[in-house]
Structure formats: structure tokens, C-alpha cells
Amino acid sequence: MGLWKQKQLTQEIVLDHSLSVTGACKLTGMCRSQYYYVSKKDDSAVIAALDQLSSKHPVYGFRKLYAYLRREGKPWNHKKVYRVYKLLNMNKKRRGKRRLPAREKQPLEQHISINQKWSMDFMSDSLASGNRFRTFNVMDDCSREILCIEIATSISSLRVTRTLEQIIDWRGKPLCIRVDNGSEFTSHHFELWCKDQGIAIQFIQPGKPMQNGYIERFNRSYRKEILDAYLFFNLSEVREYTQTWMDEYNNNRPHEGLGNLTPTELSKNIRQQQQINQLVT
User: Fold this and answer.
1) Which of 11, 90, 105, 235 is the most exposed place for a label (fewest CB within 10 A)?
2) Tens digit of pLDDT for each residue in 258-271?
3) Domain for residue 166, yes or no?
4) 94 assigned to some structural domain
5) In this structure, what CATH number is given to the domain that contains residue 124?
6) Which residues of 119-131 are buried (b: 16+ CB within 10 A; e: fewer)?
């Protein structure tokens, strides 16, 4: 405990518990001379300068703030500035909150063509060892077809775009992607990639997961039937069971929301209808 904190604690004991200064100093281990000492230093100018700079640059540390003061011609040395810096508790790590832009509520519409809109989301779980892993799930909103479940211990925005490029190679490009406000989707890299690809991004409102209801409903099934149903010892087992289940989900499992068709059957019917319409026109 620093001398300043020690003196504050001693003063609180004296005022709050009506204890003598001698008794309070014995409890905190402080000398009475230090308790009665009153500094003649005037740090008001340093405090004002640091407050002004830190309010303007809240993420800067001591070295950067001191460099600003020196550039402004302030005469104080680094020891004095650092003493006041600690006195103001500026040496404590400050974590700023990221402000999200306003998100408008969008209806969860039923599309009539594949690749109009994809929904994406992350899930997390743990192996038997306790090590955490994540899954990156991608779904076509029209056919409810699961296009990919990427599984890894860490999935960055770079891996997200790389996975999407692999899907686009065999599936084609979506017009729009619906996502939440996770850091992977709000990253500068992801937004630039979507802009280069000509893909619109539809963000749901924070705290409103059911605005991404198609993928959320799938996540519930995936967790119930795979992640919560088996004890996995490595990622290879997770990928193996997931791939088998995903093939069953897409190709054999009837979907009530699709008139008891499978996602693959609906996707095939839509493609055939589109070909017929092209021939007619």
C-alpha cells in the first residue's frame, strides 16, 4: 500500500471510528509524523494538464502523455509528472466501451430464391479436457441449407472470409448476409471484404438474437443433437460427427417449415424452376 493510500486509510479510521491518531497509526503501520505532514507542493497545474490531455486522448499511457507535455514546453520532469499520474490513478488500465452504430430492426422474411440472404453465427463448447472451441455456422435463409460449420479453437475475421470464399466457389455469392454485432463481423477487414465482393451486411439489433431466427433455431438443434449429446476428446471427433449430422440434416431430414421437404430437395426444386423460367422467357 502506498503512502498516500495509507494516509487516507488512517484518516478514515480516525473519522469513522473516533479512534485516536496514535491508535489509527498503529493499526495501519504509519508514522505519526507522516500523518501530520502537509506537502507544500502545488500540483494543480500538472493535474490540470494531465486531465486535459487524458480527456482528449483516453487511451494514451504515461509516456505518450509526458511526450505531449514536453512538446508543449512544460517544465516538469518525468518523476513529478509520473507521481501525479499515479496520484490520479491514471496508471490503472482503462477499457473503453465500443459504441455500435444504431441498428434498424429488419423483418425475418421468407425468401423465394437461394443465395438471396445467408445467416451466420458463432457457437462455443468445450472438449472433455476443458479446452474451448468455436463453431462458425452458415445457412441459406431460403432453403435452410447448412452451407458450412467451421470448427476451430479460434476463428478470426480472416478465417471467416476465407471460409466464405470457399463456400462461394461451389455455391455462388449471396446478395446479403445477416449477422449479429460480434467483433468478427464488425471488423474493418470483414466490412472491406463484403464491400469488395458486393455483398450487403444486415446487422441485427444488439440483444435481439431472434432477429437472426433461422440460424438461432438451427443452433438449438445442433447443440441438442451433437454438442450436448456427445463427449468429445479432440476437434477431429467434433468435425467427424458434425459432418455426418450435417449431411443428414441437409439431405434426409424433413423440415416442417419447408413443407416436410429436405433443404437439398427445396434447393433443387428452386433451381429447376429458375431454369424453366429462363427457358420460357
Assistant:
1) 105
2) 889 999 999 999 98
3) yes
4) no
5) 3.30.420.10
6) bbbbbebebeeee
